[in-house]
Design goal:
The protein is an alpha+beta fold. It contains 2 helices and 11 strands. The chain has a 6-stranded mixed sheet, with no helix packed on it. A 5-stranded mixed sheet has the order 1-10-7-4-5. The N and C termini lie far apart (about 75 Å).
Length: about 160
């Protein structure tokens, strides 16, 4: 079967490597910071800034030092939330994802243009702060009214977001 001692050695080495690899079973450890789920698994609604907005009276631009950061959620799992800002409707296409834990509150943050947005609240069904989106510099604010729902946005060119305490 084997024509040379070298062929026998190589075959044995390959066999033993395969057995050793098959015997290893990786330990299953839950990830303490789970990656967000793609937002297409959530319901969709429409929001129009022309009918549902309010003027900005609480935010300053990103150059202003805000009052405090939102808690990072490490001590309170209910605060683990992500903001999805997507280039396509129904939270499709390219999306930027921001972990809302630890970002500065009451500060207008610029982003790439987006046409849909969603707050993904991982643990609790209620976000303990208000998340708003709007045009560049936040002259008008549109509240994202519920977590775990994708909102198709209209009535403006959306390029900014903020978290309001």
């Amino acid at each position: 079967m084997f024509n040379s001692p070298l062929a026998l050695f190589v075959s044995t080495a390959l066999f033993l490597t395969g057995v050793a690899s098959a015997a290893r079973v990786p330990a299953s450890v839950p990830d303490p910071n789970p990656a967000p789920v793609l937002p297409t698994t959530f319901p969709f609604s429409n929001l129009d800034i022309r009918t549902a907005s309010r003027p900005n009276t609480t935010l300053t631009s990103a150059s202003h030092q805000s009052t405090s950061p939102i808690p990072d959620g490490s001590d309170t799992p209910a605060l683990l939330a992500f903001l999805w800002l997507c280039e396509g409707t129904d939270c499709g296409g390219e999306c930027s994802v921001t972990n809302l834990g630890g970002i500065q509150a009451n500060e207008c943050t610029q982003n790439n243009p987006f046409v849909s947005a969603m707050i993904q609240q991982v643990v609790a069904p209620v976000t303990p702060y208000e998340v708003v989106v709007g045009p560049r510099q936040c002259p008008q604010l549109l509240v994202l009214p519920a977590p775990n729902e994708c909102f198709n946005l209209s009535g403006a060119f959306f390029e900014a977001y903020a978290v309001i305490e």
